[in-house]
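Input chain follows. Return structure tokens only.
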Amino acid sequence: MYNETILDHNNHPYNFGKLADTTMSQTVTNASCGDSYEIQLKIVDGLIDEVAFTGSGCAISRAATDILLDLLRGQTVSTAQEIIAEYRKMIRGEDFDAAKIGEAVALQDIAKMPARTNCALLPCQISERL
């Protein structure tokens, strides 16, 4: 379950921290285990320019948040919605377009672990605010 990509993003999350200038901030939580993150985005002219998150949670939720934010940086809001939709399909064990989610395929095996899917889906809660 904890492959090299997941461990790297958990131990050294590239997007961990706070943005100085944010246009969107949302706290996402997993009530079943207590994972909680504040996700911050800076959206400029419909493009996700900067991303960051703070908070705490398990290795899966932390890695998933970091990986998903990596994928969203530099994307338009509509493309970000498509990426999140494909990512959700993968985590739910549905057919998905791997080309759209890049490195996030490292989390594909989570679909076989129902108890962990909420952890991996946690950062997807931001799609409601995009």
